[in-house]
Amino acid sequence: MATTTLSPRTDSYRRSWVLDWLTTVDHKKIGIMYIVNSFLFFFLAGILALVVRSELAVPGLQFLDERTYNEAFTMHGTIMIFLFVVPVLAGFANYIVPLQLGAPDMAFPRINALSFWLLPLGGGLILSGYLFGGAAAEGWTGYAPLSGPNYSSGPGTDLWLIGLMLVGTASILGSINFIATIFKMRAPGMTLFRMPIFVWTVLVTATLILLATPVLTAGLIALFIDRNYGGSFFEPATGGNPILWQHIFWFFGHPEVYIVILPAMGVVSEVIPTFSRKPLFGYRAFVFATISIGLLSFSVWAHHMFTTGVVFLPFFSFMTALIAVPTGVKMFNWIATMFRGSISFTTAMLFAVGFLAMFLIGGISGVMMAEAPIDFHLQDTYFAVAHLHYVFFGGSVMGVFAATYYWFPKMFGRRLNERLGKVHFWLMIIGFNVTFFPMHMLGIQGMPRRIADYSPDAGWTVLNFIATLGAFMIALSILPFLVNIVATFINGERVGDDPWEGNTLEWATSSPPPAYNFDRIPPIRSERPVFDLRHKHDREHLAAEAAMTTVEEQA
Amino acid sequence: MQRLAARLRLRTVIRVVTPLLLIVVLGGCLIPPTPETTQAKDIFSLYTIVFVMGAIVFFGVEGMIVWSIIRYRRRDDRLPDQLHGNTLLEIVWTAIPTIIVLALFVISTITLTQIDAKSSNPAVTIEVDAFQWQWTFHYLDNDNDPSNDYSVTGTAADPPVMGLPTGQPVKLILHSQDVIHSFYVPHFLIKRDVIPFPAGQQDNTLEFTITEAGTYAGQCAEFCGDLHSKMTFSVQAMAPADFATWLADAKAGNTPAPSVSPPANATTVNITAEQIAFDTSTLEAPAGQAFVIHFVNKDTVQHNVAIYDASGKALFTGEIIGQGSIDYQVPALAAGDYHFQCDVHPTIMFGTLTAK
């Protein structure tokens, strides 16, 4: 399609900026609203994590009773996953994907606005349980029959269900939008195998959301019927089966893990080549690895159910461990990209390398738990808590911060302060390991997750205390980040359109980009159009490179 | 000069020894508890193999990451060689993890078969009845008469003890009265969920053979509501002969005491439990004479009424019941204030009983 026939810089009629943001259908403004909204929920759920960790610091109940504790960890998990990690990555995708494709906007701009506005509404409903006699307290997995009518009366759980239905609907609408955008809105020359890796990961993620989330929504509705209209999907007394809930939940829940990790992998695959000044090693292998992770993610859900005694262990065990293969391929590709590169340690690059180092640990502990007999010991202990945080936090959240530092100059034309950024990174990664590494040990020693209290004789006190200190260190690391954002808006360094020497199309327009994104689009002849543009006249360099390659081949 | 050399050597030693020490300490904390059943020993061996492989991958890959970022940090503005990939290399590093995964699958499946092997004739069979929020251990014998079986129900303050013989296969039938629980003993390196299946579906079972005598802590591992953390118990493993004595003693201790018929004019005090709460937080009873507490439990969750003095000593412990009612015969109390509670939910169901 023609990129745009109107000049994107045409003045529109004037109106207040508040109304402008509230009614916008511009993917960039919606993307920023997604990101801001998600970070607000992140801080809230982070405070809940501090509440949980404070209670666990020493044996005995110091601050909370059991019910309040259970509400706190339920809300922490629900909000972190459904209202932070998923939407914040969707926010970056919203902002970046049309730019990277050379498109003027998303395919369905109004649906895009709708899928954003459902998020604060759904999140508000989930949290509003606190105003009506207590929030949901069954864990983010909401296992039946604990979440059924007989064991969790009160509106908190109903509000949780309705809120999640809305958030799920937002995801489904968003995923359709991404798929349509990626297939129909690419600029001339942007073939599928010239798309940036970030776009590929968003495409696979959107497909996973489209296939998995409706299953969860159906399960949520079934549970709502059980609770309010006398249904018996999951009620054993009337012939329902609580295991059915687990199948439904994890059929969604495991692809969900890849929904939150794949876009973060995409971010890392943009950041590492840029700051290593090399193309991503094995682009096609990387694409196929992403697709196979997506496919495999639908055949592993029951590894969350090894201890239920009702699933066929060898199949799910094998498929789960098999995911380590495409994941390993990606890890090697990233390392090979850095190998013989010319690496600058910007904050974005630090977070990307942090992703590699931490996600690796989550991957290894994942393969350990994939072996069913080992899982019999580790399932539902703090080892699982450690594992999932190395994946979600060590993986996804590191990716989110890499994306924040990397694309901030594109969004606002100013670069975040690098010194404060590095303070943020080091505090966060040390705090993260101090918090979550000891949890591996607690789990191996047999401390179950989701307990409000533990015996002083159990021998878990020291490690719990260390974990709590680490949690406060993570909280502390957020301060330089916030200061950095504020300071950059007041007095940040203006760095032009392409501060990092990026490779992909978003760096070919102004920072911030105008409405409808591009005045004109450079020719797209590879997966690095902006690199090609930058080195167009660099014949000497090309010749030198050719000569170097020949010399090497001869050697 | 010599001093400098010594300092250098010391520094090298510190540099090498500190990380090594750290690795040993961290690694040591990543070893599971001593396995105390034959099945746990199999799991332990598998764990050791997988852990060592994981450690090799960890050090190998982290090493490559660290080396790459140190060795190839930007030194000048020259553009590095723009290498797009290498098919052979990519095939190799796809094949290596595939082989590791296959090998792990084979050994873990072997272990799985070993630990899942069922004994045709277990020496002891116990029905483990889980409820919000404690356990009942019901020892089944061969006479099909439940009235003379030994059964123990725990409370949060007094978790139950499961006596078991060493060296003999034990079978647990895992039954839940309400929500999903999980039977977990860390030293056995295993847990199995206790699931309320719909009618017609068999309860889960768990079989193991304990190897060493000792007391092993256990607790519920599947989140099951408010007092999940209070669902603790312990396993006391002893030689088969000791176990026989223990069981006989336990049975004897458990035979109901001869019932003291209450005086004809005994006062009756009413209390009801509903939605995990008592209907009152104050009770009044006559001082110096036995009385009856008529306790109605409207929940499917189990409750009781127990009376404690100011020092926390139990003066009377009512039997824990499910839905229904019971008349507790309470011995005479001296005038004063007492604490009463449901032992299953001591933190949320309690009040003051005044005798006067």
Q: Your description of this structure?
A:
The complex is a heterodimer of chains A (555) and B (356). Chain A has 555 residues and is mostly helical. Chain A is built from 17 helices and two strands. Chain A has helices spanning 17-23, 27-56, 66-101, 109-128, 155-184, 197-228, 242-276, 283-296, 313-322, 324-338, 347-370, 372-378, 382-412, 418-445, 461-491, 529-534, 539-554; strands spanning 414-415, 493-494. The longest helix of chain A is centred in the first third of the chain and has 36 residues, at 66-101. Chain B is an alpha+beta fold and 356 residues long. Chain B contains four helices and 18 strands. Chain B has helices spanning 2-29, 38-71, 87-116, 240-254, and strands at 124-131, 134-140, 151-153, 161-165, 169-176, 181-185, 190-194, 204-209, 214-220, 232-238, 268-273, 282-285, 291-297, 306-308, 314-317, 324-330, 336-341, 350-355. Chain B has a five-stranded mixed β-sheet. In chain B, strands 4-10-9-6-7 form a five-stranded mixed β-sheet. In chain B, helix 2 runs antiparallel to helix 3 (87-116). Chain B starts with a helix and ends with a strand. The model of chain B is unreliable at 255-261 (pLDDT under 50). Classes of the chains: A mainly alpha (555), B alpha+beta (356). Chains A and B meet through helix 3, helix 7, helix 8, helix 9 and helix 10 of A and helix 2, helix 3, strand 7 and strand 9 of B.
Q: What's the main sheet of chain B like?
A: 5 strands, mixed
Number of helices, where a helix is a run of at least 4 consecutive DSSP H or I residues of chain B: 4
Global Rg of chain B: 30 Å
Classify the beta-strand content of chain B into a percent band.
Answer: 25-35%
CATH topology of the largest domain in chain B: Immunoglobulin-like
- What sequence of helices (H) and strands (E) makes up the elements of chain A? HHHHHHHHHHHHHEHHEHH
Report how far the terminal alpha carbons of chain B are from each other. Answer: 91 Å
Q: Which word captures the global form of chain B? A: elongated
Uncertain ranges of chain B: 255-261
Instruction: Please provide the count of β strands of chain A.
Output: 2
Tally the structural domains of chain B: 3
Briefly note the CATH topology name of chain A. Cytochrome C Oxidase, Chain A
Task: List the strand order in the largest sheet of chain A.
Answer: 1-2
- Quickly count the helices of chain A: 17
